[in-house]
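SAMPLE LOG
Freezer: B-3
Tube label: C17
Construct: single chain, 276 aa
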Amino acid sequence: MGLIDTHTHLEGFAQRGELPAMLARARAAGVEAMIAIGTDTDDWPLYRDMANVHGGYVHHTVGLHPCSVAEDWAERVALLADFWGGRGLPSHEERNTGNPVALGECGLDRFHLPKDDPTAAERIFGWQKAALATQLDLAKSLGCPVVVHSRGAFRECVELIDASGVDWTRVVFHCFTEGEAEMAELVRRGGFGSFTGIVTYKSAGPMRAAAKLQGLDRLMVETDAPYLSPVPHRGKPNEPAYVWHTAEYLAREVFGVTAETLAAVTTANAKRFFSI
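STRUCTURE (predicted):
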């Protein structure tokens, strides 16, 4: 039974010439597909082309990550719609490729705001909120899934999604690190949380409780590679092959099922959510 890594970043592997070997390790580990997550204009065409070359195995998204948001955010967000028309960035050779499987990752991030300049922090956070609202409007018009990055801003993310009118059943909060109360808010609205290797850490009790509350029938798993490696690889660079460690841990320690059962359910969930 295969497993889908629903959120990974492959830019570094490609830049270092390590992509073929990494993909081979993922296949050998039983990863049946992965979703490369766009964060800014430099990786959107890369991931589109990667998905075109590795069709059916590497899927892709495009979105402006909150940590990529700057004063010119509107100019970059305006380019996103072109990817659903197969055009890409104006400077890139026009190609007839498949659409992204979602918009994102987009969202809000208070953690990386300037710590020594509150005025600048609030200005940047304001840009983040405007960029997220604009991307949600686009997602609503496209009818596509949305991959949300939320760090230190869960309430604000939920409020903006509520206000956007986006279908909550098409929203996933990736790398969910909140607790049961926040998960209950997602479940009540119909949204999803997906889980990384953090859930295998000793300190992640509230996350495990949140995963249990969401239920296996709504669970998705991810690596967020090259970050957040699960035990036993914690502290080392992450990669899609390691998604199995997270899946096996959740199966054994949280849901009390076999890894094969958890893989079957989460793979079906991912295919249904992303329409892959």
